[in-house]
Amino acid sequence: MDKLVPLPSLGFIPERDLGSTPILDIHHLGVEFGGLHAVDDFNLIIGRTEIAGLIGPNGAGKTTVFNLLTNVYTPTRGVVLLDGVDIRGKSTAQLNRMGIARTFQNIRLFKDLSVEDNVRIGLHNAFEYSLGSALFRLPSYWKNERLAHDTALGLLSIFDMQSLADKPAGSLPYGAQRRLEIVRALATKPKLLLLDEPAAGMNPSETGELMENIRRIRDTFEIAILLIEHDMNLVMGICEGIAVLNYGRIIAKGTQEQIKSNPVVIEAYLGRRGEAKA
Fold it and tell me: Dihedral angle at the C-alpha atoms of 157, 105, 206, 180, nearest 10 degrees?
């Protein structure tokens, strides 16, 4: 794991990503709902191959940040650069084609479709069919069908799920559904993968396996990953840079060691000293 290097903007990225445009560069991002500052003055930089963490107490605004990054919510202020390009005015679908994909806190699969079909839906950026080739089943259609099948099985093999390809997605155990959602996101060929509580509902063994697979995904696809997670063993085990959010504002950024020992972070999670005594 590379050391983090400070930038003039007060951000940090891994040393190996120096010299390349950060995949994500956020300046003074904020959104208000009815006068409430749900996210305020949010600044973050993520290197092109960084595994970064966004942590904080429940209700801190973490998922709201993801919704801002994918333009589910329109920011009230601030600028987000994805691979150096301003994302203002882009639709969620356009952002996906630009290279950002996400999973959700609450699983969103097509549960009546097969595991393979869920992944193939994510391949829309890679395979395009003309109406004529699909209607008349031209050779180009069947070629793309074979490629899509092989690609879907290859992606499922990341989590050793290729044998489940024909199963209805809704029949999978909870942990397997979470893994399938990650595979579907990868099918869109992202440059930045946003994972919203990927370890939720997983047992310690599954979480350990997930940690190794997240590293493998980053190394295999050479992408950046930003994850929201409450499992601190996972966060401290794989994240290079960590940002801590509380009441919509970043209260700390740094390495695992810096975050673990930061008194402001400890207070945000555990309360002021003495308050928990009973």
Answer: -20
Length of the chain: 278
State whether the Cα torsion 201-206-211-216 is positive or negative: negative
Q: What is the DSSP string of 191-247?
A: SEEEEESTTTT--HHHHHHHHHHHHHHHHHHT-EEEEE-S-HHHHHHH-SEEEEEET
pTM of the model: 0.89
How high is the pLDDT of residue 5? Answer: 73
Q: What is the CA radius of gyration of the chain?
A: 20
Question: 207 — alpha (psi -120 to 50), left (phi > 0) or beta?
Answer: alpha
The Cα 197–Cα 22 span in angstroms is 23
For residue 131, the model assigns a pLDDT of 58
> Domains in the chain, ordered, with CATH?
1-99+190-278 (3.40.50.300), 108-188 (no CATH)
